[in-house]
# Entry
Amino acid sequence: MNAARAADLGIGPRSGAGADRSFHLVTMAAAWFVLVLLVAVAVSMAWGGRLAFSTFGAHFITDSEWDAVGGHFGALVPIYGTLVTSAIALLIAVPVSIGIGLFLTEIAPRWTRGPIGVAIELLAAIPSIIYGMWGLFIFAPFMATHVEPWLTEHLGGKALIGPLFTGPPIGIGVLTAGIVLGIMVIPFIASVARDVFSAVPPALRESAVALGSTRWEILSRVTLPYTRSAIIGAIFLGLGRALGETMAVTFVLGNAHELSASLLMPSNSIAAAIANEFAEADSELYRSSLLALGFLLFVVTFIVLTIAKLLLLRLNRQLGRMS
Amino acid sequence: MIVALPLVAALAACGSNGNQGSAPGAQITGAGSTFVYPVLSAWASDYKKQGGANINYQSIGSGGGVAQVKAGTVDFGATDQPLTSDDVAKSNLAQFPIVIGGIVPVVNVAGLKAGQLRLTGPLLADIYAGKVKTWNDPSIMKVNPGVSLPATSIALVHRSDGSGTTFNFTHYLSQVSPTWKAGPGEGKTVAWPGGVGGKGNEGVAAYVRQIPNSLGYVEYAYAQQNKMNVAALQNAAGTFVAPSAASFSNAAESADWKNAKDFNLVMTNAPGANAWPLTATTFVLVPKEAKDKAKTQAVVTFFRYALEKGQGQANRLDYVPLPAPLVQQVESYISANLK
# Structure
């Protein structure tokens, strides 16, 4: 309707104003559509999970028992598994991705930038089930035979971190899932990192060079501070992907509703539990609990993103005070 | 959903007008058990080649199949867990078994020869309950004299998705072990005391092959096709038997079908002398009073074909056809209930 009117007005003398108005409306509708969709999804999942929330109350979040036969459901294990695997993924992906971005924009010879950049974008296009199968058939046996026995032997006995690395080396568990997730997240963070690093104004860099800065000083005092908020945005894009990843995690996490301190033991994640169990969830409470899990994933993601925004605000304020 | 419904109804109306109840070219839809999917799709393809109706089967899982057929969205459902005869009556369905298969414990222990390991039902339950933790536990050594087993812990693998295979497996463990019955119990998913969960038969098979010293359970066909090491089990008669077409048939023949109303019977722990204790059946559910009678007749014709002419296919795919007396019982049940 609006578009048609705009077209009609297109020939009139005030064509610019009409087009402006309709453009304004169209873009606003697009933005609101996302918000409405988001709220609708959250509300319908909360509504679907109401039976679980009303039956178990707050215990749903703190209880680690998940028993479909006894009709007793607690979401602690999937929440824990989701958060820990995503944390491991970021621990690996963030330094590697920033390294890739810096290398491609500052250090690499010009002719290598194209091929490596394309390779990273191709990595992002690989379907997650391929990562899952690679994880299960190639990476998990490698972890079981080479990495996990070494970890247990050298770190398992240490105080504090010891309990993280105990248990039989089966190759399938929180650590393997976290590493596979990390590899999956790298292309997302790295390609944004490369773009923002190359968007640093040359004048800034040249001034630093003129002042006699070394390459390291340029990186740490000019490039990274200048791109800080965009990089944190990229990290949270990657984190969002890690939190919600389903197929690859299902293959290598072990899908066991068991709480264990060890990173070598199997666990479960919210997305994996829903994917595994939804088809055969035949009691109403079971189905409702899975929908409630979906709602919790929403809440977890929302909290994590809010914390990130607050961090960024604070960082900016501190920096403002310093200068 | 609301928008889609009238469209679907309109399409369905077009479909039934297009081929007025005639069998050739008719479209039958079914949904349910993944266990039966390979043999059902082989039957469907042969049946169509011989001029029969087009069978569209979606292997969405037993629970989904039951829900869909109760809702009337498909012409038949297939489930590995039989409905109680009360439930069958209440939903106005007919229920009958269609094909037999086996579930087998598979092991990955270096140095163990194929079929060498022997297990008893209670022992299997104790292992899955985490009470028997290592391969050289005295209770395992007792039934495996002369076999050298490692002192390593047993890595347990189970299904992570809800599954009829898990239902049959845990039903058996509940039959042979009172503590299992009181503990995790039986169901399509249970609260496993330990171990890792693989998605689907292929997931469990992959985990067992990847993880040294592991024990899992899969459908017989998967173990055969992947050349996995299968353990022998002690049956209710006290004999150790290996899984095979013969021992599955023996289980089906010795099960008490005559007294099972609407065939509500799980065949595990069957009494036959050579019966494989983890034998399972897939049941077909057909609405007794469908809106379209011709559809019901087309479904019946297809399953009659499967029962009478599908045995060769079943054998080739590592399933076992129903024994002759049971086929007769099913045929008379169909004649009586699905007119």
Observations:
- Chain A touches chain B at residues 65-70, 72, 136-137, 140-141, 144, 168, 170-173, 250-251, 254-258, 266, 272, 276-277, 279-282 (CB under 8 Å).
- Strands of chain A lie at 66-67, 72-73.
- Residues 183 and 199 of chain A are 25 Å apart (CA to CA).
